[in-house]
Write a structure and sequence with these properties.
By secondary structure, this protein is an all-alpha fold. Helix content is about 65%, strand content about 0%. It is built from 6 helices and no strands. It has helices at about 10-50, 60-75, 105-110, 115-125, 130-135, 140-160. α2 (about 60-75) packs across α5 (about 130-135). The chain is globular. The mean pLDDT is about 85.
Length: about 160
Amino acid sequence: MTREKVELPPFQALIDAHWRDVARLARAMAGPVDGDDAAQRAWEKAYAAYPALTSAKNLRSWLLTITARCATDVHRARKPQRPLEDAPPVAVEGPDAAAWPDPDLWRAVNELPERQRFAVTLKYVGDLDHHGVAAALDTTPAASRRLVSDALATLRSKLGVDDD
């Protein structure tokens, strides 16, 4: 059985079109410190797999799925760390949580269980539909709907928001 050759755009065109989406999703899922590494790893994996693609449909979702998996790998590889007793404070670039549009919301999102946090992040930061969320989390679209729904219910409850 031979595969039909698919006409793919140059990989650089893919980068130009989607680098912001990949970076934003990686930082949202892996955090501001590890997000850039997760995004870089996602681009490496995408570049390696690109020539073997059998379809040029929905390349954005394909990239975001790779990004979500790389960010999940980074998150899972983290080991609990104790703060250094005598280390000077480290300045990290980026906005302080208090400067975010809604710091209470982001604190509540951060407290969600891992799969719910990833599902809601993929849905609303990555702008994936439930099929894309399901592919990124290795689950079914129905399960991704449930994860997002449960996450939103928890957030509404914690923040005291009515469904009205």
